[in-house]
Design brief:
By secondary structure, the protein is mainly alpha-helical. It has six helices and four strands.
C-alpha cells in the first residue's frame, strides 16, 4: 500500500493544459493550413513571439481560433485552458531570442545597442530616453504586463536590426498610447 504522504500533491506544483476545443465540440483540420486552427494559432504565437505567458497564449487561442474557423467555414471551436493553480497563468511559456541569455546580459546588451544607435544618430533623443527609462523599469520588475512585454520586444527587435529606427518610433508611440492608465489615488 502506498504511503499516504506520497499521494499528496507537491506544494507549489501545478499543471497547465491547453485544449483545442470544448469537450462538447470537435476540432477541425483545415486543408489550406495543413493542420487545424488550434495548431496554426499555437505556431503563430511561437513564431511571432506574441505570447510570453500561459495567460497570454490562452487569450491568443481563445481570440484567434474561432476567427480562423469562421474564415475557413468550419463549425465553432473554442479552445480552453486549465491552469492549476490559477497563479501559474503568469509563467513564461515561450522565450524570445534575447531572453535566453542571463537577464543582466540581456539588459546590458540592449543598453549598449541603444547607446550605439543614439551615438550614430539613428535613434532620436526622445525615443532613446524613453527606451532607456523603460529598460531600467523592466530590469527591476519581475513580471511585465502585456503592453510592457510588447515594448520590450520592440526594443529587442530594434537592437537586433529586425526593426528600423523609424518603424520603432511608430510602434513605440502606439505602445505609449495604449499603456494602461493607473487609477487616481484616493486621498
Amino acid at each position: 500500500m502506498p504511503d499516504a504522504a506520497r499521494c499528496q500533491p507537491a506544494t507549489g506544483s501545478g499543471i497547465v493544459t491547453f485544449f483545442s476545443c470544448d469537450p462538447k465540440e470537435k476540432s477541425y483540420e483545415i486543408a489550406d493550413l495543413k493542420h487545424g486552427a488550434f495548431t496554426h494559432c499555437v505556431l503563430d504565437a511561437i513564431s511571432n513571439g506574441t505570447c510570453a505567458t500561459v495567460a497570454a497564449i490562452d487569450k491568443h487561442l481563445r481570440e484567434n481560433v474561432p476567427v480562423l474557423n469562421r474564415k475557413y467555414h468550419k463549425p465553432p471551436q473554442l479552445p480552453y485552458t486549465i491552469i492549476e493553480p490559477s497563479e501559474k497563468g503568469h509563467l513564461a511559456i515561450f522565450f524570445r531570442e534575447l531572453a535566453q541569455q542571463p537577464a543582466s546580459d540581456v539588459y546590458a546588451a540592449l543598453f549598449d545597442r541603444l547607446g550605439e544607435l543614439m551615438y550614430s544618430q539613428e535613434l532620436d533623443e526622445k525615443n532613446f530616453d524613453e527606451a532607456v527609462d523603460f529598460l531600467e523599469k523592466a530590469r527591476k520588475s519581475s513580471i511585465l504586463n502585456e503592453v510592457d512585454n510588447r515594448r520590450l520586444r520592440f526594443i529587442e527587435s530594434l537592437c537586433l536590426g529586425k526593426l528600423k529606427p523609424k518603424s520603432f518610433e511608430v510602434v513605440w508611440k502606439e505602445a505609449a498610447r495604449r499603456e494602461p492608465v493607473s487609477p487616481p489615488k484616493l486621498l
